[in-house]
Amino acid sequence: MVALVMLLVTFFTTLLVNLIPGSPAFAIYGEVPLSFVAKWDESHGLNDPIWVQYWHWLSQALQGNLGGSWANEGGATVSQLLADRIPVTAEIAVAALVLSLILAVVLATISAARPDGVVDRFVTVLASVAAATPPFVSSVFLLALLAVRLQWFPALGYVPIDEGLGANIRSITLPVITLVLALAPTFLRVLRGDLVSLLNEDFVNVARSRGLPERYVMMRHVLRPASASLITVAGISFGNLLGGAIIVEIFYGIPGLGNLVYRAVQLKDIPVLTGVVVCVALFFAVVNTTVDLSYRLLDPRVRSNI
Amino acid sequence: MSVVGHQTTKPEPDQLGPTFDARKRHRGAFRGSWLGMPRYRRKVRKRRKIALILAASWVGFVLILAITANLLPIEDIIVPIGRTNTPPHWGTEFLGLDLVGRSMLSRLIFGARTSYLIAILATAVSLAVGCAIGLLAVYFEGPVNFIANLFCNVILSIPGVLLLLTLAVVFKPSYWQVIWAIALVKLPGFIRIVQAIGRSEIEKSYIVSARGMGASSTRIIVRELLPSTIVSVVTYAGVVLPTVMLTEGSLSYLGYGVPAPTASWGQMIAQGQRDIATAPWQAIIPALVFAINILALYTLSDWLRVKVGLKSVERTL
C-alpha cells in the first residue's frame, strides 16, 4: 500500500507540469521569447508524453538521483538542496515536539491531580485559546511582543549551529514557541482526559492502598498506559507539525524545507517540489510505522497478540 | 409528595454511574444539590453555558455583518480613503488604515464574508463528494472500496498545507479553485466517517430486507443508506468547519487564497506583518479577530459534537 501511494503521489506531482497554464519557463525567466521557451520545453522533456516523463523521473529517483532544480540550473541538485534544508527543519520540528511533550506531560499531570481545580481550569482555558490560534496568527503576537517591543529575540533569520550555539538557539526560539503553541494543546487535552479516567481506575486505588508513593503510582500505573494514546496523537499531529513548520519558516525567514517549497511553488520548480513531497511522504510513512511499533514497547497486550 | 429535584426513591448504585463514587467522596459538595449533580459540576456547566452563549453571539454578529456588508455605512475596500498607515483613531476610522490607505474596518467585514463563504462552501462540497464516494465504497465494497481507500491514503500521505501549496502551482487564485482545493484536503475525513457508519448500517435488517424486496442499488444507497448516515456526517461537517476556516486563513496568508482586491483575513495578516515594527495594529487587529473567530467556532463545534455524541471524532481526522 505504501509503495502504491508513493507511486501515485509522485505521479501526480509530475503530472502537475502538464497542468500548468503556459510553460514553467515563464515563471522562472520572466518575459522570454517563444522560441526560447520551445527549446527549454524540449530540452526538459516537457513535450514527451506524461508516461515517458514519469518513467524518466522514476528510474532516476530509484537510483537516488532526484534531478536538478529548474530555477537554478547547474546549481545545487535537488538532493543537495534537501540535504541542506532538512536539518534546519528537523531541528525546529524536533525541538518543538520535545518541548510540547514535556509541557503537556507536566501540565496534564498537575491538572489531572485535581480535576476542575483552579490550575486545571486555568490550563484548560489557556489550552483552548492556544488551540484556536494557528501558527500564522500566534506568530504575529509573539513577533510584536518579544521581537519588536521587548527585542529579546531576532525577528527574522536563522543562525546555523556552527556559528555559535547561543545565537542558534536565540534564532530558533520564536519559531519553536509558535509551533509549541500549536501542538501542546492537542497533547494536553488528550493526556489530561486519559489521566483523569485512569486515576479513577481500580488498579490505581489498589496501588495506592499498597502504600506505594504517589509519584511511583503516577509514573508506573498512570503515565505509562496514558502514553500510548499520547504517542498516537503525536503521530497524527506530525502532519500539523510539518505543516506548521512550513508556515513558521516562511514567517520567520528560516531556510528550511518550508521556504524551499514556497520558492519552488512561486517559480514552478517542479523537480524541487517533487523532491520535497517524496521526502515528506516517506518520512510520514516511517513515522506511522514507528508509532505502530512503539505500542508493542509500551503495551504488553499488543506484544502478545502479534 | 414530590418536589422537583427531590429524589423520592433511592436509585440503584449502578444506575448512578460515576457520580455515585463522587457522591461518597465529597459529601459536602452535594449539599443543596439536585438531580445528583454536585454543586461544582453545576458551576462548570454554567461556565460552559456562558462560553457557549458568547461564542454563538460572536458568530451570529460576524455572520450578520458579513451578510449585510454591502448595506453597511462603511468605506470601499479597494479605494484608498486617506493617508497610508493611519493608526486607529476614535471618531474617524477606529481601526486605522492599511498600508495602501484602505479602511481596515471595511476590509475586516468583507474579509469575514470571504472567510465564511469559502469555509461553508468548501465544507459543503467536501460533504457532498465525501458522502458520494463513501457510500459507493460501502455499498460496492471490493475494488471501489480499495480505490476510495487509496485515494484517502494518497491525500493523507502529505500534510494539508504542503498539498495545498503543491496544488497552488497549477491553480490561478479564484473563489472556486480555492474552494475545490480545500474541499479536496478535507475529503478523507468525510469518506472515512461515511465508511465507518455505513459499514455498521449495511448489516442491519432494514437494508437486508430492502435488498430482499429487490430494491435497486440506487434506491438502497439514496433512500436507505444516505438517511442513516447523514446526521453524523452533517455533525462532522460542523466539527470540521473551523479547521476549514483555519486552512483558508493559512492559504490566503501564504498568498494563494482569493485574488488580490478581495479582502481576506489571512492576507490582511500577511500584509500587516511586513510593517509590524512601525504599524503593529495592521497585523494584530486581523490576527485577533481571526483567533477570536476560530475560538468561537471551536466552542460551538465542541458543543455540537458532545450534543450529538460524536465524541470519538477528533478534529485531527
Task: Summarize the structure in words.
The complex is a heterodimer of chains A (306) and B (317). Chain A is mainly alpha-helical and 306 residues long. Helices cover 78% and strands 0% of the residues of chain A. Chain A is built from 14 helices and no strands. Chain A is elongated, with a radius of gyration of 24 Å. Chain B is mainly α. Chain B has a domain of 199 residues: MetI-like (MetI-like fold). Chain B contains eleven helices and no strands. Chain B starts with 12 loop residues before the first helix and ends in a 9-residue tail after the last helix. The N terminus and C terminus of chain B are likely disordered. Chains A and B meet through helix 1, helix 6, helix 7, helix 11 and helix 12 of A and helix 3, helix 5, helix 6, helix 9 and helix 10 of B.
Task: Sum this structure up briefly.
The complex is a heterodimer of chains A (306) and B (317). Chain A is an all-alpha fold.
Principal-axes geometry of chain A comes out as elongated
CATH superfamily of the domain at 110-308 in chain B, by name, is MetI-like
Distance between the termini of chain A: 20 Å
Order of helices and strands of chain A: HHHHHHHHHHHHHH
| Radius of gyration of CA atoms of chain A, rounded to a whole number | 24 Å
What is the beta-strand fraction of chain A? Answer: under 5%
> Helix/strand/pairing class of chain A, anyone?
mainly alpha
- Helix- and strand-based class of chain B? mainly alpha
Pick out the low-confidence regions of chain B.
1-21, 311-317
Q: Helix-strand pattern of chain B, N to C?
A: HHHHHHHHHHH
Classify the oligomer.
heterodimer
Number of helices of chain B: 11
